[in-house]
Fold Glutamine ABC transporter ATP-binding protein.
Amino acid sequence: MNLIEANHIEKSFGELQVLRDISMHVAQGEVVAIIGPSGSGKSTFLRCLTQLETADRGEITICGKQMMRTENGNAVFADPKTLHEITLCAGLVFQNFNLFPHRSVLQNVTDAPIRVLGISKAEAEKTARSLLEKMNLSDRADYYPCQLSGGQQQRVAIARALALNPRVLFFDEPTSALDPELTGEILRVIRQLAEEHMTMVVVTHEMAFARDVADRVIFMDGGVIVEQGRPEEIFGDAQNERTRAFLSSFA
Ligand code: ADP
Ligand code: MG
């Protein structure tokens, strides 16, 4: 079963066409890495899939629920209830953590379950504490984001995303705001989620990580998917010249 089906996605900002007919399907349990140069449309694509941006055309189905389709050349979106259900099914972890600065770690993790799911504070805190333990942050529950390292803040952001019990997680360059020594702790968490068969789409510049953890690697450039395949195919035997040129810049 596919948890993500995106077909023929197009998106422009004014005159600038950022996504040009992108199609991507992700099966349940699959880990997909998206790589590609800056400005190639990776973030815009994730933002269209997570309702932070509206695609101009195409068809998106997440967790079996159709989020948008195209009729007579125009995007038509699902009703608010369906869009809300999709929000609960698919979480997003940002490059810059995006925690609430004036709320404690615990409050950051319990906010959405209480406010969005309507579960009790006690229940939300129980779940939050077990997620913080999993993120190795049990002793930081009462801290504020500014009192944490970037790596710790990102682990809080991951706990916050997991608190809604999503079936899919999107990560947009989750380590690129971190010092190199803090990158490893985030990659270990994502690797652990992969071992637990969480379905994930990870935009990353960490090529060794993509090679190790992803089931499939997608190379985007200029608003299109140039090439995709198993990590060994992309990293060992890329067919497209642009893919090879991009990868050689990491050598
Ligand atoms: P990537 O994540 O691959 O670096 P982005 O999706 O962030 O690429 O950006 C793709 C292109 O779209 C870039 O040229 C960027 O400047 C442009 N862009 C992104 N968001 C906006 C926006 N909100 N308004 C105008 N242009 C944007
Ligand atoms: Mg980006």
